[in-house]
């Protein structure tokens, strides 16, 4: 009888926990998303040296993911055999990194592949969502397999900016890390760390923290039926939108796009294979705190803070492009 009563108490406690978690998951953000705050200075992406239309880009390609979905990417060819696969930041897609990719390819440092991650413009069934946590890593492994099928046999460097850099950290700590020879991180976002400027990346993101906590509890209990709920929205001003941006992410996409909760273990796996660059005036990531994290977890990584550089200049500046090309050319 005592055992039965104990089991009943545990069951009641579990039911209460599930009810609380569901209530938290169902909660709405307290404040509406800003429609006009320009955190990063999007005008910089419209300048003559950075603006790019689809007509300026290499042809859109498709590669088959393991679930049969045809995902979008572009190739910037080069005389180099090395291949830089570069992952875009949150809400964006590969087009934003056209100038970076073109400059790297023209330098002869690497061919560049720009994927549009599943759940973003032209990739996947649903904008802002994927099927399961870990799918983005599977997709990246499938893209690398496609490059090999097309006889691009050089070493793979996996790079990314902002959330794309966070994804690279996750990839380096996961099952597919051996597919890349090196890693390149530009202002990497690690949302669960103190390196991000507040929970909002300096005002760029509106995070539904109550929902995230509730969904994390439910997933710990094996309940995944609510994982398509949106947990984060992005404050891209209306005047800069063109319909290609992805303005909200589900829990599973948000989780798959960033390092694991115990992010230091992922960072440690980068070791001497990584270069990290961040601007001293980055609006989303605190450069000094990021340096401190890498000093502790991955002291062998090459870490550089660039003066007079912000979150967008880290990938649009010609001077930065030259530094990236120089690093890529030193292959040891």
Automatic annotation (TrEMBL):
<dbReference type="InterPro" id="IPR051044">
    <property type="entry name" value="MAG_DAG_Lipase"/>
</dbReference>
<dbReference type="InterPro" id="IPR029058">
    <property type="entry name" value="AB_hydrolase_fold"/>
</dbReference>
<keyword id="KW-0732">Signal</keyword>
<feature type="domain" description="Serine aminopeptidase S33">
    <location>
        <begin position="81"/>
        <end position="304"/>
    </location>
</feature>
<protein>
    <recommendedName>
        <fullName>Serine aminopeptidase S33 domain-containing protein</fullName>
    </recommendedName>
</protein>
<feature type="signal peptide">
    <location>
        <begin position="1"/>
        <end position="25"/>
    </location>
</feature>
<dbReference type="Pfam" id="PF12146">
    <property type="entry name" value="Hydrolase_4"/>
</dbReference>
<dbReference type="InterPro" id="IPR022742">
    <property type="entry name" value="Hydrolase_4"/>
</dbReference>
